[in-house]
Amino acid sequence: MRIYYDYENTFFDENNRSLGNCITISENNKKYYYEFCINMNEALVKCNDNSYINEAIEYYRKYNKYINIFYNEERSFYKQYDSIFSFKLPIKVIQPSKFFLNESKLDYFDNNLDFDNIYLPVAIINDEYVLLDGHHRLACLNQNFYKMVNVYVDNYEYHINDFVYIAKENNIFNIKNLKVLPDLDYKREWEGFYNQYFEYN
User: Fold this and answer.
1) Nearest-5° angle of CA 106, CA 129, CA 195?
2) What percentage of the chain has pLDDT greater than the value 70?
3) Angle of helix 192-200 versus helix 159-169 axis, rounded to 10
4) Per-residue pLDDT reduced to its tens digit, 77-133
5) Distance between CA atoms of 130 and 173, rounded to whole angstroms?
């Protein structure tokens, strides 16, 4: 079984697709599509087949644990998790674990995000708050003169330590230090680095 965030399939609503709210699962030459329509801490899950709805939800919640209520259009499926503890942090104190931003994605987010309903996962590493996901969202908040962001503390994977080390080596200490790249350059630089890192680690 292969599971991944799907940014291209036209089965999904363009806005949800671009915001990273769509997941595709491929199994035995068949594809299962799951689209998460967010309203505060709830998600309506639209799909073509609910066979893997639990797997899709678990995958989606990896970096979206503030969403804790899920249901389908018929309300025949309903799943709830415990609410997470969240708090506000100054944007300027959050250490990135990424090096670049995608200009196209940043522009799209800037026009389509609900800035007051953003919750980002952070880890506490060496007494620092490290951003685990949502760098484009954080950058959009910063661009729009927000000083604080809602966060929650989450577990992190081994590579985050290496990514933070590399970021600091490149003088990246807050979201303003990330370089904004055109789409093709971003894919070459960030995705190239990411794929090469995991090929050898």
Assistant:
1) 55
2) 100
3) 130
4) 999 999 999 999 999 999 999 999 999 999 999 888 889 889 999 999 999 999 999
5) 10
CB atoms within 10 A of CB 162: 12
Three-class DSSP category at 113? coil
- ∠ CA 155-157-158, nearest 5°, is 135
| Residue 196 structure tokens | 């090469």
| HSE-CB for 190 with a 13 A CA cutoff | 19
CATH code given to domain 87-200: 3.90.1530.10
Ordered by start, the domain boundaries in the chain are: 2-80, 87-200
Q: The whole model's pTM is what?
A: 0.88
CA 155 from chain center: how many Å? 14
Contact yes or no for 82/68 (Cβ under 8 A): yes
Secondary structure class of 199 (helix, strand, coil): helix
- Classify residue 18 as left (phi > 0), alpha (psi -120 to 50) or beta: alpha
Listed in sequence order, the residues at least 6 apart from 104 whose beta carbon sits closer than 8 Å to its beta carbon are: 182, 183
> Does residue 201 surpass a pLDDT of 70?
no
Taking Cα atoms as reference points, which of 116, 183, 107, 161 lies closest to residue 139?
107
